[in-house]
Amino acid sequence: MAVLAHETDEDLPAWSLPAAAGDAIRLPSTWPGRVTRDWAWEGSTGAGVRVCVLDSGIELDHPLVGTVQRSVAVTKDGDEIVVADDDAGDLCGHGTACAGIIRALAPECDLTSVRVLGAGYTGSAKVLLAGLEWAIGEEFDIVNMSLSTTKKQYVDRLHELADIAYFKRTMLVASAHNMPVESFPWRFASVISVGSHEAADPFVLYANPRPPVEFFARGLNVDVAWLGGETINATGNSFATPHVTGLAALVLGKHPELTPFQLKSVLHLTASNVA
Amino acid sequence: MSDLRAAVAAGVFGGDDAFRALLQATVETARGIFHAKASSVFLLDEETDELVFEAVAGEGSDTLVGKRFPSSTGVAGWVLVTRQPLVVDDLSKDTRFSRGAAESTGYVPRGLMAVPLLSEDSALGVLEVLDRPQGVPFTLAEMDLLGLFANQAAIALELLRRARRAQAALQGDGELQALARFASLLEDADDEKREAGLALLRALERLL
User: Which has the closest alpha carbon to B24: B8, B12, B41?
Assistant: First the structure.
């Protein structure tokens, strides 16, 4: 997929603004003097928001997940990476858990599963990149990435994709690492990075004054959807991440015009520790 | 590591026994610290793209070492591929997991903690701790402890991998074996002989 301007036939615009053109791009400001949770998402169900879960797949017809609008799998065919519709569900349980958390917060959002697990460890970073490229091409509003890679050779491309997503209005929400290793994409400024706090309330969100981890959400002892229509109790930053995805879906459901920059600002302004 | 250096290393270090013991001590300690029923380390075999039980403490310790499964399936596979630690409880409700675990290990854990073993930019394997005490809520402090512990296990696993690579470098190559034998003899020699051997080496160095 071509996602950079130089990879397509698009003409590059001139990146400047003539003196008289300011009025032509005047933006209506609908933000209140103080951004509250009421303003941000009260009454929203996430309806109309397209969320992609890049993970191990999503179990079809799980009672806590409901309808999954589309499921695709990214697989290796020799050296080729193939993205194709898929009905194998979830190979681990983890993607179903993430989907259930998002659904609980934003019950009417659209969910698409992109399975990037199952092709083996070797080549898994390539599969992850291909899945992300596909998701950006599909112009999802939010992509939940409860995963990371440590492979340095793919960092540049991943960084490029994260920036492209940001300007194409696709918000990437990525799990931070709680181990002292370099991993990506959560370290990039163009994504929302998420760690865990210990509170049991799914709406408690803390903004971190010391990034690269930007937000802390519920990630400890969470009852999550799992294989076989079951629920289990689970802990990890990978479960905090879909909590932020769900909140972001609520905000976008009510304010679909928000860019990733604005969406991140709303999450910051409505965080539990920001007065 | 070059084959020549590997051969010298193999000569000095001998087999991989010491590193296996270190890894075994690591899983025994992990099991003890978390008051768990079992703990295992899986090594990623990149050639076959499989995870291999490398060290096991507690349940399954006498039967599991050497058993293999595909590298990107189940909780261990997810942890390896995504580099994210994961803690899950009530796993026995997941019939697919229970069946798979029972078939491969004869033991179905109720809960497990799994963490990737990372060295620089590659994942070497996975550390699992099975069945912490019931009724004790998990904390983020334990998650951090698990991460610290994984670092130690990763170092042990990396040493084991290097020792094996060094041994493999010796297979079927007379020159490398001779070099390893020489390094081994030098390591074991008394002071007088070792000094004479080193003098000879220095002379060789000047010559080369």
Answer: B41
What parts of chain B have a pLDDT lower than 70?
1-7, 10-14, 171-174
Chain A segment 185-224 residues within 8 A of B by beta carbon are: 196-198, 219-221
- How far, in Å, CA of B146 to CA of A117, rounded? 24
Domains in chain B, ordered, with CATH? 17-162 (3.30.450.40)
Q: Do B84 and A148 touch (CB under 8 A)?
A: yes
Residue A270 tokens, joined: 């409505």
Would you call B96 and A228 a contact, using CB atoms and an 8 Å cutoff?
A: yes
Distance from CA of B118 to the nearest CA of A (A): 8
Question: For B116-141, how does the pLDDT look when each residue is reduced to its tens digit (9 = 90+)?
Answer: 999 888 899 999 999 999 888 889 99
Which residue, among B136, B119, B126, has the nearest Cα to B86 in the 3D structure? Answer: B126
Q: Residue B116, preceding bond cis, omega within 30 degrees?
A: no
ipTM of this predicted structure = 0.86
Interior angle at CA B14, CA B9 and CA B20, nearest 5? 105
Determine contact: B93 vs chain A, CB below 8 A: yes
